[in-house]
Amino acid sequence: MPPDLAAAAAVIDALPYETIHGSVAGLGGLGVTLEGFGPLAAIGDRVRLEAPNGISILAEIAAFRDGRAEAIAMGPLAGLSDGVRAVLAPRPALAVSEAWLGRVLDPMGQPMDGLPAPVPGARPRVTHAPAPPAGQRARLGPRMALGVRALDLFTPVRQGQRLGLFAASGVGKSTLMAMLAGGVEAEVIVFALVGERGRELREFIEDDLGPERLARSVVVCATSDTAAPVRREAAYAAMTVAEHFRDQGRQVLLLMDSVTRFALALREIGLAVREPPATRGFPPSVFTELPRLLERAGPGPDGCGGAITALFTVLVEGDDHDEPIADAVRGILDGHVVLDRRIAEAGRYPPIDVLRSLSRTAPAVLDPHERPLVAEARRVLSTFGEVRDLVRLGAYRSGSDPVSDDAVRLAPAIEAVLAQGKSEPSDPDQAFGALAVALGG
């Protein structure tokens, strides 16, 4: 660019932006009715509500009705009143940089770890971005060691795959996430803690993650007491951070806890703008937004070289694995892992129900000598599940069925292979070697 044009561009960039403002015409719950913006505002824009007493909060426009905009507040409405000035603010964007590694941030990129704000990157990224074009995406990469024997054996994962962890509350989901953070060979780890309990943030970072893993991680957190748009934005912000490092050609591991709380935040927003509830109170927009978020994970465009391998936790209500969110997510992802409360109560951790877990890439991942081992182990565990109650009651008589006899003899050894401590290292070769020994009797 010629020097005179560059100087002119710098002067123009330094000029203050024109302020576009309206006013509040109604308040209630999370909803804010705005007027005065006309065609200058759009769905997804943010507005800053400025009360005369100095109170200022953000709200996001979610709908238009009868010439007025309906927004959802991103903070408490206490202190605001009718007629308050509303100023149009920039759309959500994050200027991710290398300085974000090792940091704990909120969905707006502000620090939650007591340290100064990280140095921003050169180019802000829009958080609500589309997924890469399907026809231009690279294919999944090679097998990725997860460091958890039950997963490496029965639900193997390729680089760029998306896997769901389905569990009820208190079954051991956070412990499994910590094992994955330490066992997966990823260059960058991005954690999305959506609707997390406030007291658990430091426990997770200091006890489960630790300084070494945190140094190559970015943690994006929105606690359960934040407004629904903030909790929803945590998922989009974490995905944006992961995309930044993926586009640099890095292998990224994205761990999101949980998709269910993301969906609950979407439900709050939908109901606040009077969207009709459909399936179990979830409005249709929830099932539109889920694939828009989840499809962004995976391999980048051809030539990028990077990929986002993503594991999304799904909290199943009342141990119902067919509830709407679980059913929708299972249909989008490339596999699912089921954590069972009964296995946890029996004392085996991680409590993964391998018979109900599935990886859609397993046929392309397992070597020819590994497939028969997995098939035989599934057959043994399935048969043992049929006679387990008889064994416990003392009603089982050996010799009546050779297949059942083998299952009763071999199942305990397979269960021992599946049991693993949180800090116990493992790799696929070790896991298949231990499984072969167990099946050998």
Number of helices: 13
Mean pLDDT over the full residue set = 90
Which residues form runs of ≥5 with pLDDT under 50?
A: none
> Span from first to last CA?
75 Å
* Strand proportion: 15-25%
Strand tally:
19
Q: Please state the structural category.
A: alpha/beta
Radius of gyration, rounded? 25 Å
Percent in helix: 25-40%
Give a quick account of the main beta sheet: strands, pairing sense, barrel closure: 9 strands, mixed
Give the CA-based shape.
Answer: elongated
Catalytic activity: ATP + H2O + cellular proteinSide 1 = ADP + phosphate + cellular proteinSide 2
Protein name: Flagellum-specific ATP synthase
Domain AAA+ ATPase: 159-344
Keywords: ATP-binding, Cytoplasm, Nucleotide-binding, Protein transport, Translocase, Transport
Summarize the structure.
It contains 13 helices and 19 strands. It is of the alpha/beta class and 441 residues long. Strands 8, 12, 13, 14, 15, 16, 17, 18 and 19 form a nine-stranded mixed sheet that branches. The chain has a six-stranded antiparallel beta barrel with strand order 1-2-5-4-3-6. Strands 7-9 form a two-stranded antiparallel ribbon.
